[in-house]
Amino acid sequence: MKIMVSIQLSHQYGWVILVGVASAFLILWQGMQVGKMRKKFKIHYPTMYSTENNVFNCYQRAHQNTLENYPQFLMLLFIGGIQFPIVTALAGVVWILGKIAYSLGYYTGDPAKRMKGFFGYIGLITMLGTTVSFALNLLGYL
Predict the structure, then answer these.
(1) Engineered SS bond to 88: which of 4, 7, 67, 81, CB 3.0-4.6 Å?
(2) What is the DSSP string of the chain?
(3) What is the phi-psi region of residue 140: left when phi exceeds 0, alpha when psi lies from -120 to 50, beta otherwise?
(4) What pLDDT, in 10s, does the model give residues 28-45?
């Protein structure tokens, strides 16, 4: 049996879109930081990680980790935001701020300091909750 679902977006979904745009600036900022370190330490493409410079590797790893987590962030943001735009947008901001703190901690060259951004997972888990709730609502369980 095929059931069609029509979704109307609240005007508040605009906040979700703006958080998605803000996250693109996070990715851009991190990439620029890696580029600066490539120049400073003379680490040329296509070298991904340095065998001699751990500080560069910390910059590269902060960016790479964000890229590894970016698809699920966007999926949770845009889907969970359909039903819960404000909560999901705020959770997205928490994730972004967590990634900034994570990056700044990593940029010290001491990988343990990346844990300063651990609070970003509160945002990610909240978005997971809004997305699961939306899915269960679509399935008629909520």
Answers:
(1) 81
(2) ----------TTHHHHHHHHHHHHHHHHHHHHHHHHHHHHHT--TT--S-SS-HHHHHHHHHHHHHHHHHHHHHHHHHHHHHH-HHHHHHHHHHHHHHHHHHHHHHTTT-GGGGGGGTTHHHHHHHHHHHHHHHHHHHTT--
(3) left
(4) 999 999 999 999 999 999
* Number of CB atoms found within 10 A of residue 4's CB: 4
Residue 142: pLDDT band by 50, 70, 90 thresholds?
Answer: confident
Token pair listed for 12: 């508040």
Angle value at C-alpha 25, between 22 and 29, nearest 5 degrees: 145
As to burial, measured by CB atoms within 10 angstroms (0-12 exposed, 13-18 middle, 19+ buried), residue 131 is: buried
Residue owning tokens 């930081």: 33
